[in-house]
Each structure stands twice: as C-alpha cells, then as structure tokens.
C-alpha cells in the first residue's frame, strides 16, 4: 500500500500536523473481541503505509494492551503524532485476574483507578511512555472527567499546562462523549486540542451548538471519534438490533438512521460514506478517528475517505433529520 494521505492539517498550537483520517487504537486493545499481536501490528503498519500519521490510544484501552501494541508496531517511526490519555491510573489488581468488565477482551490483572491529580497525571504519563516505548507523547487528553470536573480543573489541566510549557508534550486537551463539559474546558483552560466522540456525527449534531463554535473562537483543534455512533451508521441499511451510543438503538434513532440512509442511496452513496465525511466539513475539525483492528479494516476505512459525497447530499440530509 503506497502512501495516500498527507499530514497537511495543523493540530493544536505546537506545530503538529495530521491527515484527515487517523487511527483509533481502542480496537487493538481487544475492544469487544480479541485481536492477536500480528493482526494488530499489520493494522498499524498498513495505516502507516497509507500515510496515516496520527494514532490515538489510552491506558483504559485493554488495560494498557493498546499502548503496548501500538508502541511495538510503530517501532522506529518517530514522525507520527501519538495521543494518549490521563485520568485512569493502572495499578495491580487486588485479587485474582478476572475478565475485564469494561468491554475489553483481556484479563484484568491490573485495575483502573480514577486519578486526576497532578501526581496521578505524571505517573500516568510515565507509565504510558514505558508501554509505548517512547521518550515523549505529542498530545495528552484528560479522559472522561464527567464526574470529576473540579479535580480535572484543579489537578490535571494545570499539570498538563506545566508539561506543555516545559516542552515535554506538544498539546493537551480533553476527550469525552459529551460536548457541554468539553465546552467549559475550552473556555476555562488553555487547552489547544479536543477529542469529541459521538456528538458531532451525521446523526447527532449536538456539538455544533456549543463546542465547535467555542473551538473556533479559542483556536482549539478538534478530532472527532465515534462517527458511526457505535455501529448504527456503519451500515448502508441500518437494521433492528443496531447499536446507538453503545446500547440497542431506539425505534426513533433507527428510523432517523434509515431515513438518512435512504437519502444517501438517492445520491448514489452510503450512510457510512457520509458519516466519515460529515465532520470534516466543519472548520474546527482537523481529523476523524476511526477504530481499526486489522489491515482489512484499514483498507475499508480508506475506501470511505477517498471520494467525497456529492455536495447536494448535505442539504438533503439536513432536511431529513
């Protein structure tokens, strides 16, 4: 596979650049199903060969497995952008290892402990550097601080600001599945990147009302994840039983997805195709993160990216919501 993407989009204020499509590494942490080491390595290297330059991971993903696999697969590739997250510190499990209870097909020989303190941030980053086999991390997100606003504001963000000012990291921000608190962080801290999952999609435009205007105003770069809303928009013909936001889709959500899928068919395209391209139309959005667990999935995701949908599609989708 020859290089096909260009890292031509500024990401944050620290000189980083990314391509339109980026690699979400939760899947190679055995999200929902096991992936073997070779398959994970092949996925990362196929992405590199295609020109994908930004890889997002977290200690939460597979209890460190995603970081370890990503670090091993990237090896000497020093020119990529890597982001990881803080907020969950991994500590030895207090009892016998059991299957992980948070969606990853791994044995829980360590446990996640919420920690948004300065010391917790420093420890988490040090542990991530070891797992990744690197001497620096480009971007660090405060991960899912939904119930920890005060701790994040008083501990995590000042710590990350300190690390950025020292040149230890290039950029920092927060990664969440909601836009309201992210918008507060954008307005009340000096973060320069944001990862929003599931709230700026072809089905859910919520972040367009608060987060994205704030990011434009404050010069904050946005990465969008969860563009398929956990599965419902990954099919050209959504069916009963599809998942929406990690739960069975309601009849209302399924009806909305099927209306949009029909509009896509009328324009000679598909709902997954529209789902990938929709966020990239906003000026604040720099890249879309797609989960990739195999070389085949990398190829499938790239096929969705190459040709944009017809321009007339977008107004018709708006009318169908």
Automatic annotation (TrEMBL):
<dbReference type="GO" id="GO:0005829">
    <property type="term" value="C:cytosol"/>
</dbReference>
<dbReference type="GO" id="GO:0050235">
    <property type="term" value="F:pyridoxal 4-dehydrogenase activity"/>
</dbReference>
<dbReference type="InterPro" id="IPR023210">
    <property type="entry name" value="NADP_OxRdtase_dom"/>
</dbReference>
<feature type="domain" description="NADP-dependent oxidoreductase">
    <location>
        <begin position="20"/>
        <end position="314"/>
    </location>
</feature>
<dbReference type="Pfam" id="PF00248">
    <property type="entry name" value="Aldo_ket_red"/>
</dbReference>
<dbReference type="InterPro" id="IPR036812">
    <property type="entry name" value="NAD(P)_OxRdtase_dom_sf"/>
</dbReference>
<protein>
    <submittedName>
        <fullName>Pyridoxal 4-dehydrogenase</fullName>
        <ecNumber>1.1.1.107</ecNumber>
    </submittedName>
</protein>
<keyword id="KW-0560">Oxidoreductase</keyword>
<dbReference type="InterPro" id="IPR020471">
    <property type="entry name" value="AKR"/>
</dbReference>
């Amino acid at each position: 596979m020859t290089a096909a993407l260009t890292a031509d989009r500024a990401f944050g204020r620290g000189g980083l650049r990314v391509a339109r499509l980026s690699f979400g590494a939760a899947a190679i942490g055995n999200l929902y199903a096991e992936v073997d080491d070779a398959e994970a390595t092949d996925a990362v290297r196929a992405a590199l060969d295609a020109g994908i330059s930004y890889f997002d991971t977290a200690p939460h993903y597979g209890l460190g497995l995603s970081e370890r696999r990503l670090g091993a697969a990237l090896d000497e590739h020093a020119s990529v952008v890597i982001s990881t997250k803080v907020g969950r510190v991994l500590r030895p499990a207090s009892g016998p290892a059991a299957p992980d209870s948070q969606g990853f097909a791994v044995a829980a020989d360590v446990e996640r402990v919420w920690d948004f303190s300065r010391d917790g941030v420093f420890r988490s980053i040090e542990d991530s550097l070891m797992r990744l086999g690197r001497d620096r991390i480009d971007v660090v997100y405060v991960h899912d601080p939904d119930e920890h606003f005060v701790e994040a504001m008083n501990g995590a963000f000042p710590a990350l600001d300190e690390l950025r000012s020292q040149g230890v990291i290039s950029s920092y921000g927060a990664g969440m599945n909601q836009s309201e608190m992210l918008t507060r962080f954008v307005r009340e801290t000096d973060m320069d990147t944001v990862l929003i999952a599931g709230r700026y999609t072809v089905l859910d435009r919520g972040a367009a009302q608060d987060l994205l205007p704030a990011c434009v105003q404050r010069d904050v770069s946005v990465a969008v994840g969860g563009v398929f809303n956990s599965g419902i928009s990954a099919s050209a013909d959504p069916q009963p039983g599809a998942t929406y936001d990690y739960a069975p889709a309601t009849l209302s959500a399924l009806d909305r997805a099927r209306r949009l899928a029909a509009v896509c068919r009328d324009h000679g395209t598909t709902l997954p195709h529209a789902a990938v391209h929709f966020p990239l139309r906003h000026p604040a959005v720099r890249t879309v993160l797609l989960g990739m667990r195999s070389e085949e999935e990398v190829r499938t995701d790239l096929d969705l990216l190459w040709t944009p949908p017809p321009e007339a599609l977008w107004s018709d989708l708006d009318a169908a919501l």
